[in-house]
Model the fold of this input.
Amino acid sequence: MAIENPSLEEIGAILKKSKRIAVVGLSNKPDRTSYQVSKVMQQAGYEIIPVNPVIDEALGVKAIASLKDIEGHIDIVNVFRRSEQLLDVAKEFLEVDADVFWAQQGLVNEEAYELLKGKGFTVIMDRCIKVMHALTK
Done:
């Protein structure tokens, strides 16, 4: 099965209704893409939840070790991990209350895609959330 992302209009609707974004692999280093993208999304009004067991905080928010440690609903799980790690993140995604699995630009894993799509979840891969946000404002 080929990866098929939602349309630009559908992505715009997702971003408009979403408020909480858990960012898996968010770095606390300002020169890293995950930090820069998440900072823009935070400045746009989204609640950013850093998910990274090796840092204490990022963007002024206490980091969480795993998705399972987040209390409450998550609108988007935005992943900054290597493509081969997406399946493990997808399996953890299934154990939490989340709506959308989003793998950043350059990241694709067909097995993770098929697992989540097969369970009815919205899956976006190989798209930058910051770029999609700018395109759909």
Notes: The mean pLDDT is 97.
